[in-house]
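In practice, a research group might receive sequence data for several interacting partners and want a quick structural hypothesis before committing to experiments. The following worked case mirrors that situation: the sequences arrive first, and a predicted assembly follows.
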Amino acid sequence: MAKILEGKPDAQGLKIGVVVSRFNSFVTEKLLEGALDGFISHGGADNDMTVVRVPGAFEIPIVADKMASSGKYDALVCLGAVIRGDTPHFDYVCEAVTQGLGDAVKTHKIPVGFGVLTTDNVQQAMDRAGSKDANKGYEALLVAVEMVNVLRQVS
Ligand code: INI
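A structural hypothesis for the assembly, expressed as C-alpha cells:
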C-alpha cells in the first residue's frame, strides 16, 4: 500500500505573512479579505497574520524575500492584481512578480501562496475576488497552509 501524504487545511498556530499591493486596490482589498477569512475560518488567530502593503505588484517580491529571510513566518501569501493595458508594461510586471516569488520560494524554502491575479480586464479580476472559493486570496491562503503542513510531513 502506498503511503500518501497530504497537508491538512489547518491554520491553527501558524504565522502567516501577507504582502498585498495597493495598485488596483478595489480588487486587492477583496483578496486580502478573502485571505483573512480563509485564515480565521481554518483555525488561524488574527494576531498571527502580519500584512504588509506595497505600491504595486512589482514591489511584492522584495518584501516577500525579506519576510521569508526573517524566519518569523511559516508561509507567505502574496496578493496583487495586474490588469492588462495597452502597453507591454503588463507583461514585464507579471514576469517580474512571478519570477521574483519563485526565487523567494527556492531560496528560502518557504511556501508562498500566489494570489497575484494577471487578467485581461477588470471584470476577470473582479470575478476572481468574490467570496470564499471564488476568491483567489482565500485560495492562496489555503494553499499556503496546506503546503506548510505537507512540508512538515516530508521533512
Ligand atoms: N501594478 C499592479 O499591481 N497592477 C497593474 O496592473 C499595474 N499596471 O498595469 O501598470 C501595476 N503597475 C505598477 C508596478 O507594479 C510598479 O508599482 C511601478 O512600475 C513602480 O515600480
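Before designing any experiment, note the following. The radius of gyration is 15 Å. The mean pLDDT is 97.
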